[in-house]
Design goal:
heterodimer; A: alpha+beta; 5-stranded antiparallel β-sheet; 4-stranded antiparallel β-sheet; 14 strands; B: alpha+beta; 5-stranded mixed β-sheet; 5 helices; 5 strands; about 30% helix; about 15% strand; globular
Amino acid sequence: MKPPPFDYSRPETLDDALATLHEVGDEGKVLAGGQSLIPLLAFRMARPGHLIDINRIQGLDGIHLNGSGTLTIGALATHRSIELHRDIGPRCPAIGEAVSQIGHVAIRNRGTVGGSIAHADPAAEWPALALLFDADLRVRSHAGERTLPARDMFVSYMTTALATDELLVEMQFRLPRPEAGTAFVEVSRRHGDFAMAGAGAVIDIQDGLVTDARIAVMSAGLTAVRAGEAEQMLVGQEATEQLTTNAAQNIDSVIDPLDDVHGPADYKRHLAKVVTRRALQTAAARARGESA
Amino acid sequence: MTSKIDVSFEVNGEAVSGSVEPRMTLADFLRDEVGLTGTHLGCEHGVCGACTILVNGHTARSCLMLAVQADGQKLTTVEGLESADGTLHPVQEAFSRHHALQCGFCTPGFLMNVVEYLEEGPSTEEKEIRERISGNLCRCTGYHNIVLAVKELAERQA
């Protein structure tokens, strides 16, 4: 249970980090909070030749929520700093609920938002939140910068669209208007364990009808996913208990849970629908101004 | 491949320095190089919480940090809790009085977690307390007396 040998550098500037990433190529791996990477090293499931520790780079941990609902988070902002932020939880309950279910406090103190998204674990909360809030991911390399929509980021199990010389530096989440309802629901065997299923939802209601519906499901396949068909069932309709239940049943086509030690695939498929229904109904209740 | 890197940091108020392989975890450095064996290693992959220490006042699992990452930081381990004259920290005293430990292996991690919890303004609700300690595994006590100790500490602060 000890990491294998690797070279290590801890650049002080972003430019130095990007130059090193370019130089070491496939051998390189970025170390941010390390709460997923260090266990992978300890199990020797990952054997990078060179770790690039980005923790000394200043200015990558900013958190800014502006008046029009754009939440900008630097890659090195910790889960805990989002959880304890005065405005984010009240403005967007789904984020507060999701973040408080990431591991335990000691993990959230060190784990980072950018690290979670770049790691792309299907059982992690931030990839699902990035999809739910149509995040734009700002990515840098020695050659330049590009913006990657979250929907193009998650390619497969722990696999992203980032090139080996690219570094995720900032995420912009587009929060719905404050009147919309949001919620994030998970089921896990014990508090802080990886979720057996999780779902985030956004429901906006105007004049009694749904104007915006979004569903992101995690821990139910190779990547977190949006459930577009189920979302479309809701738009233009009344968010009744029956309709939200039917919509949650309709996530089948986008999820593909696998059997594992926590349970068979059928059971996890069932759970994914249950958490989707609960997230939709809580989000709808919040959109109607009911306390939920 | 394995050239050593110089590190220096503060542990329990004292300066510590050394030269480490990058792959050495902070937990191993504290135990094997500094000689502070109060920090226990259970799972070595961030699940059991036994190796929890404070880094700049906040809990961290020392098996999930590399020793090189502690460079320039202020660390507190379980050895740093009692006073110079041997008086137990209030958290240690409460654990002792409530018999909140049996074999004691997990205890250092629990203590560091609870120290941070009390700093943050703890809840006195059992549900909240149980949630807060859920990242530390104990195979002896069934948690009951640990919850009682934390509840009393939280109530004293309320």
